[in-house]
């Protein structure tokens, strides 16, 4: 048997998988094209979300705090998943695993405290602190006689 035949025989399952995947994608695209709606109207391609029509422009600037909060959510959400996986294997990990998880939680809390202290989680505008200096003025009437 030649090496080419051996490679094809060895990887036949992968080749069948690729052929079926591409064929299924083409079948779904063709089905959507044939069975899809053909109605055209004035408001057909306008965005409509949650029952509210779009107002204004899409070129609106957003604060970076939206992205910061999204990143914090993803980070803490992934860490919560890690703790869930740890809790399912708590009997196998024993006290060593408990200490490791406690250290992990303490590091998370330290990060959360740090974020709160630098104001990364504060949505309110920065408070302006106006320092009012009070000076005492003494009015002495000095008349020389």
TrEMBL record:
Membrane topology of this protein: Multi-pass membrane protein
Keywords of this entry: Cell inner membrane, Cell membrane, Membrane, NAD, Quinone, Translocase, Transmembrane, Transmembrane helix, Transport, Ubiquinone
Broad enzyme group: translocase
Subcellular localization(s) per the UniProt record: Cell membrane; Membrane
Reactions this protein catalyses: a quinone + NADH + 5 H(+)(in) = a quinol + NAD(+) + 4 H(+)(out)
Record PANTHER family: NADH-QUINONE OXIDOREDUCTASE SUBUNIT A, NADH-UBIQUINONE OXIDOREDUCTASE CHAIN 3
Sequence similarity: Belongs to the complex I subunit 3 family.
Subunit (UniProt): NDH-1 is composed of 13 different subunits. Subunits NuoA, H, J, K, L, M, N constitute the membrane sector of the complex.
Name the UniProt record assigns to this protein: NADH-quinone oxidoreductase subunit A
Annotated source species: Winslowiella iniecta
């Amino acid at each position: 048997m030649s090496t080419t035949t051996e490679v094809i025989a060895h990887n036949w399952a992968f080749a069948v998988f690729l052929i079926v995947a591409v064929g299924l994608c083409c079948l779904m695209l063709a089905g959507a094209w044939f069975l899809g709606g053909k109605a055209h109207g004035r408001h057909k391609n306008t965005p409509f979300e949650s029952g509210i029509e779009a107002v204004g422009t899409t070129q609106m600037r957003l604060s970076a705090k939206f992205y910061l909060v999204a990143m914090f959510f993803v980070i803490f959400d992934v860490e919560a998943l890690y703790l869930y996986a740890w809790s399912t294997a708590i009997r196998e990990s024993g006290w060593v695993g408990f200490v490791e998880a406690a250290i992990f939680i303490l590091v998370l809390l330290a990060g959360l405290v740090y974020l709160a202290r630098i104001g990364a989680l504060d949505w309110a505008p920065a408070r302006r602190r106006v320092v009012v200096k009070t000076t005492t003025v003494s009015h002495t009437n000095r008349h020389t006689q």
